[in-house]
Amino acid sequence: MTGFPDIVADLKAKLPTVRGRLLANEMLAPLTWFRVGGPAQVLFMPEDEADLAAFLKALPTEIPVTVVGLGSNLIVRDGGVAGVVIRLGRGFGDVAAEPDHRVRAGAAVPDVRVAKAAQDASIAGLAFLRGIPGAIGGALRMNGGAYGGETKDILIEARGVDRTGNVRVYSNADMHYTYRHCGAPDDVIFTQALFQGRPGDTREIVAEMDKITESREATQPIKSRTGGSTFKNPPGQKAWQLIDAAGCRGLKVGGAQVSEMHCNFLINLDGASATDIEALGETVRRRVKETSGVELEWEIKRIGITA
Ligand SMILES: Cc1cc2nc3c(=O)[nH]c(=O)nc-3n(C[C@H](O)[C@H](O)[C@H](O)COP(=O)(O)OP(=O)(O)OC[C@H]3O[C@@H](n4cnc5c(N)ncnc54)[C@H](O)[C@@H]3O)c2cc1C
Questions:
Q1: Is pLDDT of 1 > 90?
Q2: Active-site option among 141, 180, 225, 287
Q3: Phi and psi for 124 in degrees, rounded to 5?
Q4: What are the tens digits of pLDDT across the range 208-254?
Q5: What is the end-to-end Cα distance of the chain in Å, rounded?
Q6: Residue 304 beta carbon below 6 angstroms from any ligand 1 atom
Q7: How far apart are the CA of 212 and the centre of ligand 1, in A?
Q8: Looking at residue 16, what is its pLDDT?
Q9: 193: pLDDT confidence band, cut at 50, 70 and 90?
Q10: Residue bearing the CA closest to ligand 1, atom 35
Q11: C-beta 72 within 6 A of ligand 1
């Protein structure tokens, strides 16, 4: 892997007022749960929303932009990602309860911290976020959901910056949510969310969160290098049952394996490449199509180019 041409000096000359860090050929594997994939041509970590907006406004339009969160729903391909990859950090990390049982959170706040902030303020309805290992930006984009709750059930509005650097606010309706899908324009980088909960009892919320923690530990390979549910559940069916019926539990390609514990999870068992993991996913899709006629749709996002 030789990496991409270094365009950082050129970008810095074009974007003199940008305050965040710009790094050339920064490896993305450590930023993902699977721990695979090549570098970002440029990794940009904006200081705050104004910095992000100024960067996007001045960035030449021909340079592609990709945003990553905590990488818990992501396969970065082995050749890496051309253009600029944006990762939000500290400047997007505030979370606070507000009047009327609301919680406002920056897009870089892990979902679990939002669930905890709601619990501390006796706000019910957000505990399901405890079960999702991503950050709020990913929850907004994926309509993340677990244990009977979905992001669309609690979102009042999301703020974001579009590719031309304009800050916009999206109401719940503007997000056009369906199962694990957000219909807001693809170029929007979410920066903040405002959630609506309801009055709750702290002890009951703590008990619900504990139950979610136990259930996850019992049913998901959460200590493995994985990307969570690989495929969306087809209407009225469970992806894991179709995968099991197709005989794919434990199936391996290179160092990648279909989890023995939960067969809609793929795991990087032993030095897998992104190519191994994606090839395993495609093998599962083919076998499921052959045995049940169902075409599974990837839930995991795959970005970048093959090596
Ligand atoms: C063990 C395990 C269990 C999981 N269980 C669940 C579960 O129960 N329910 C569930 O819904 N998911 C689950 N997931 C999947 C994953 O955690 C969610 O999809 C999560 O919302 C992704 O957030 P992230 O920050 O990791 O995003 P990433 O994986 O980094 O990115 C996912 C997508 O969101 C986009 N994105 C990220 N940040 C932003 C932003 N600021 N603005 C715009 N777009 C952005 C990315 O471009 C990408 O398309 C699980 C994953 C693992 C590893």
A1: no
A2: 180
A3: -90, 165
A4: 999 999 999 999 899 999 999 999 999 999 999 999 999 999 999 99
A5: 7
A6: no
A7: 18
A8: 79
A9: very high
A10: 138
A11: yes
For residues 294 and 302, give the distance between their C-alpha atoms in angstroms, rounded to a whole number: 21
Ligand 1 test: best mutation among 142, 175, 191, 215, most atoms within 8 Å of CB?
142
Question: Does pTM surpass 0.90?
Answer: yes
* Lowest mean pLDDT across 2-11, 108-117, 230-239, 278-287: 2-11
Q: Please state, in angstroms and rounded to a whole number, the distance separating the CA atoms of residues 198 and 126.
A: 9
